[in-house]
Design brief:
The structure is a homotetramer of 466-residue chains.
Chain A: E1 5-6, H1 20-41, H2 50-62, E2 66-69, E3 78-84, E4 88-93, H3 123-144, E5 148-154, H4 163-169, E6 178-185, E7 188-190, E8 197-206, H5 222-236, E9 245-252, E10 263-272, H6 275-296, E11 299-308, H7 315-328, H8 335-346, E12 360-362, H9 375-379, E13 384-390, H10 401-407, H11 410-432, H12 434-448
Parallel strand pairs in A: 4-5, 4-6, 6-13, 7-12
Antiparallel strand pairs in A: 1-12, 2-3, 3-5, 8-10, 8-11, 9-10
């Protein structure tokens, strides 16, 4: 049972004067709105976000941050730092787009360039809002002479590439006290929720080709290997915890029907709310693949793909963010925005009775979303608080053309301001009250309960840059 | 392409005077007809043929044979020997019935005792005809003072138990020069044909039970193991030589649907015209079973069942038998027998245009029947000639109620005489002309082509007596 | 999140004087303890509970109830009624045992008769406790001159036979205002929970037999039909709501491996917390079965088995029962009982940290247990309240030898008294305050939300008595 | 058992003077060798053989044939005719190349253009040799004033497109008395053999996409449809005649693992030596596909692909061709050709003990090759004789780079001459002796045995030109 405290707040502007940091956010809001739009106009997929990364680096450097680019072996990864000493607070930024989801800022499906990438997960807003909060915070540190360090981490390729994992391996989170993160959504929400841990990759089967009519007995079918594996996976479904997800496609199922396939490839992802449970499931998926190879006398080779941990919520940082969002407030649509929203909602199949952007959903609810993110991995190595801000029209799901359209619209940019304000207010509270950081660390340790982070993206692995 | 020389011969009785041994067969025909009927009336399944074995032992001992009972660790196995020195000629006898095929000697389906065994493979005739030939031959040896030994081997449990294999392991074929064998059928035939090698057994899967609704994820389904194995076997079919056969049943598929099955059992048989090819296929079936266990996290245990080699035909002994059958001749139905045959043929689904019992099919045709027999194993360790005699109405297949009915009728006993006469005449030719035995041995070596007999029924295995 | 109010109560006896009806329960407790033991000693499976039903009928008649036996076409079903007019309150009684679970009243596995039935679901206690409550209530009606009717329904074959469904079809619940039910468990609990709806039956495939080596192409494998169906069912798992359960066994997988199976049979059960959702899932299982027949050119025949609806909790009756259980109280073990419990817990695999019999778990928690019951169907046609009482040692699950042992022990009989007292107190409250019955009816209508009860056990179906 | 008469003949040139038509072949051999090479140098795939078709049309027109281009709705199909009245003898020509098999005329793998088509089935030789024979025959008709008509049919897209089937539908074979055909091979052979009938196409499954982690229950997996179909096909294998072949690939197995596949596609071919048996098998494959759709709640759509009948051999025309090939003779390698052959044979995996190009394999052997051809369809509507000529190095199989290399070499052109001489000599015999044509027609009718040609390429189907 979830206890929800939904609060309709007065307009954002009315509160600006109350707090210095919100004033800084307002001062830079226009500029960073432009930054978000600029990244939206040049959508770049994971590890190739050269321009997007450069734009953000430029803004942060121009505002007095010390920028290190190309960190952790990734050309588009960077850190930007201001201040010194403890606490060290990191704001996470992402900026990669999704392939094939090019879309104009219109409430009808209309790609800018058919087949091109698009910002259907709103990472243009994500990267820009965190940068805006960092700059506002830097000005607040200056103004109030806070001790400590604010950092912005530019993390590439969240959509499967797992840039943050390489940054963890590179030690970039070792001296960090708290991480604050957010994600675009169709609502404003802070809770104690989590995400799904996932693991995936390609299972390649190698057999022996033979003429399928003249000498099938001399062939060893790689496709048989894949089929036997996948049949076994179907039987596995009954015997894993019901929250588990296993899904796959066959990316190569043979080259010609009259040739016994010498090669076949399966792309498979498994998920579970708990990384440790997922490990057990994964070991069994692997056995299914081995069984496919064994029974078909083929060879199986596994190529590691995405592997993200579930988010470990930090109860204290979630409370800090909840308070911050209450102060930050939601926003209301202009008549034009309302029209845009209504038109868009008509394109959605199902009814959309979700909360509007003026509402805040703040609670201690646990549970998890079906998404997976490499921010999950960060949350296993350092206390992390995360929230969602309403950048999409209610009812719009990420990875849709509707999300891409919102991410380029004024609605997206208003939601981005909710995020920036929330991040900035939370960071101020942490600088004001170092005891919170200690409490967050305790809460984090309690959640870990002795467990340690593990990943299949090994320390010596190189990012799949191409 | 088969070259068939089909010869309609004059009635059997007309030829009796021509040859001493046929006279001896005629003299004992009535008695051994009674023996065959007596065994038919007390059908006993493999390794439990106590009465059937005792009847045959009694007749052979009463006719001057030296009988050794309980050989090779099997209570119902025996050897009966007459004469001394080389050559040593063995006639094979079988006498086991089949479960569930009880049937009266009528052309309509009517069990004597529902569910009880019946002689649906005609082994009552097989055992009696070979014994009759042995007794006739003994008298011919006496009459013509032949040097050498005639033996009758009482071999239990041909229907899956493989009695002959234990007799091979016990060394009982080591000093044998030639083996003559026959089998009941719906036609008279001598050729260079073979049989199917087979191998089989039970695949037992052991899992972990769990409540299937409350905690399926804690169970490991033994039935899943069996299903994954069998699915893999289906994929295997495309990639084995097309003459291969693989067939199975599920003998235990779980105990209650709301319990994850902790046990499941598959009974599977594979066959191929070549034992060596079958070995390769079998190794792959085993991998499928291992894959089933691997993918389902269950344990697989294999219990060896029947494993029979294909018959290696001996070209020379086949020619000797062909000549013998030409002299032995076929037989004609009485009006009553014709009526019986016609009534029975109406119970058969398909058209039955097969050759009648008066016809002889003698050729050099190769090929194979779809049956499997442990006489196949004998043929790998000593030169063996084998043929079929028309004990069943044309169109009747073994292992049917129709075959069981014929095996108890006068038709069966007439076909049995064709067999006894052919065996006796062939044995006489071998005693008369020892060069044939040498030639048979050469032909045998040529067929072997350097291969040696192997079996999964290991030398230290104990017969599955219960 | 569940809010639990766990209350340790003073001993039962201390409260006896407070309330007339508890006095009546106490007065008859010894006698009905003997009844429960007597039924335990003569365990009878569903529809064959002749003696068990007779014992209960006898007791109720002897206490002034009007008994109708053999109702709804079932020899062991009966109704027993006292009083007249509204309200009509029904207490449900069950008394069938489970096959193969014979067990002595000892904390070690030791069947009375190996393979015989046993009361491993505690229905001996269930039937006796409800009868005890009915008798106590009858005396309270007399004493306080309540208007209304108390009834006891003897419902056979809860373990798969669905006796209550035939009683619904027979109209026996048409004039009923409220039903009170309970079930033996390892804890005392009242909440707003539900059970799983289930549906099941046998899928019979009919093919064409053929010799699997000689002519497999002439056969149509019934086992193939079953395997293709079941493989399809495995693929279905991914695409049904995750709470769904589908489990099956293969009850006939062919008769001999060398014969293409002409018959195969699958026993399958599907479950879901919502009967309506289950209907959708079931339609798809049926399509899988049809697909198996279609692809294998066999014929499929479905034989309906158990089909139980999920329990619709009645919020008001649950509250009434919660208050009643608080008054009824739990109980404490004697030193001997504690020793018995500890010995038994050592035979359980997992740790058993459950609440003791002195604790009461009363809440508004929703959720569901993984069990299915035909009491679920009753709850769709009349307001029903249900609870569990601690008749089993903590950690003991139904359908185990441990449960059967407890059901025969003094622990079982103490738990049975918790149940009888709770039932009696709740019935008194309903008689005292008819507004509760109206409120219960409102709550029931709200839960129904316009839905109506459906079942695959059609009105003209006859109970599977043999 | 095959009876082979293998005859080593004297060199081809020595025989030229013996027969007028061989003289004509010799006279044009150089020119048509160039034609074959020219087509080899411009390999064009089925229905796009614009240049190849034009070259052949040009040569035939230049030699006095009346050419009709673009017949039967196919731009590259044509007929070329000379003479008038009966008999009408047709020589079949093919000229399409295979995709991806570009290769230089060298004994090492070396494409002219990687990925481009190549003449790996030797159709450049096939088309040129038949045209050469046609021209030689035309000169013989003129010289000997034969009555009757010689035609050359330019038949496109033998490699899957089935050009000849559209030509049958267009009535182009209605007045034809006999068809003579040949195919490049690694040996010279005339017998009574056949080919495999085949049928194939694409099975497209349409489902409903859904997020595979968030809402798999809302999706209907098209890939599930394909998997269930293919699993069922695997079970089908046991129950079809053992000579049957069924082989498939998965051409589309979903687009992203986190999306329930809305589309999947299987490409499947089935084959059997008998078109009628194949029809029965095909109907069952179709049921498997329907079962896949039924069980997965997806929609299945079948797109017809190649459907070729098996060749019905004409015993009389085979004898005519056998005699002709004996007169035509084989050929010997030059030292350079021997070196080429030996180098190429080293690139072949297995031992290559096949007969050399100087040997002729002429027999009445039946049996079939594992290939399928639309010449098979022609043989069901008109008497057809077909043979193979040694254009490839012994051991080289069609559809390999080695075959493409040979087809461009002098070895290919020498084999082409064997074919042209055999065709021409056979045609002369038929013109000389019209009784042969009558006998061929009788033999054809006997083979048909009342059966009629059927095809899934319906009369109103349009050739898949693009």
């Amino acid at each position: 049972m979830r206890l929800l405290f939904t609060i309709a707040l007065a307009a954002v502007t009315a509160m600006a004067a109350d707090n210095g940091v919100l004033g800084h956010v307002s001062a830079h809001a226009g500029r960073f709105g432009e930054v978000a739009r600029q990244i939206w106009e040049t959508p770049e997929i994971g590890f190739r976000e050269t321009k997007s990364s450069a734009i953000l680096q430029h803004e942060l450097a121009a505002n007095g941050f010390e920028v290190h680019a190309g960190v952790a072996g990734m050309p588009t990864a960077f850190t930007a730092s201001y201040g010194s000493g403890k606490p060290v607070i990191v704001l996470l930024g992402e900026f990669d787009a999704l392939p094939g989801l090019s879309q104009k800022d219109l409430p009808v499906q209309s790609p800018v360039t058919a087949g091109a990438p698009g910002h259907a997960c709103g990472h243009n807003l994500l990267g820009a809002a965190s940068a805006l909060a960092a700059v506002a915070m830097k000005e607040e540190i200056e103004a109030r002479r806070f001790r400590g360090t604010i950092r912005y981490y530019g993390t590439p390729a969240e959509e499967g590439g797992g840039g943050k994992i390489y940054m963890i391996h590179a030690g970039l989170f070792q001296d960090v006290d708290a991480v604050l993160a957010w994600h675009p959504a169709d609502h404003n929400k802070v809770d104690w929720g989590s995400s799904l841990a996932n693991n995936g990759g390609k299972f390649r089967f190698y057999g022996v080709a033979s003429h399928a009519a003249a000498a099938p007995e001399r062939g060893r079918s790689a496709l048989d290997g894949a089929m036997i594996m996948l049949n076994a996976v179907e039987f596995l479904r009954e015997h894993v915890p019901q929250e588990t997800r296993i899904h796959y496609i066959i990316t190569n199922g043979g080259s010609a029907p009259n040739i016994v396939p010498a090669f076949a490839e399966v792309s498979l992802i498994a998920r579970n709310p708990e990384a440790a449970v997922l490990e057990g499931v994964w070991a069994r998926v692997m056995k299914c693949a081995q069984a496919g190879a064994l029974a078909s006398e083929t060879r199986m080779e596994f190529v590691q793909g995405t592997n993200y941990a579930n988010i470990l919520p930090d109860d204290v940082l979630a409370d800090v963010l909840g308070r911050a969002m209450q102060k930050a407030g939601g926003y209301e649509y202009t008549p034009q925005e309302r029209e845009f929203a209504e038109k868009m909602q008509k394109t959605l199949g199902a009814a959309t009775g979700g909360a509007g952007p003026e509402q805040l959903n703040i609670s201690h609810a646990e549970g998890y979303t079906s998404a997976s993110t490499d921010a999950g991995d960060v949350s296993w190595v350092v206390p992390m608080g995360a929230f969602e801000a309403a950048t999409f029209v209610p009812g719009v799901a990420p990875h849709t053309w509707q999300a891409a359209a919102c991410a380029g619209s004024s609605i997206g940019r208003k939601g981005m301001l909710v995020a920036a304000r929330t991040l900035a207010l939370a960071a101020v509270e942490l600088f004001e009250n170092p005891a919170e950081i200690h409490a967050a660390s305790e809460a984090y340790r309690k959640r870990l309960a002795g467990r340690t982070w593990t990943t299949h993206i090994t320390k010596d692995a190189r990012p799949p840059l191409d």
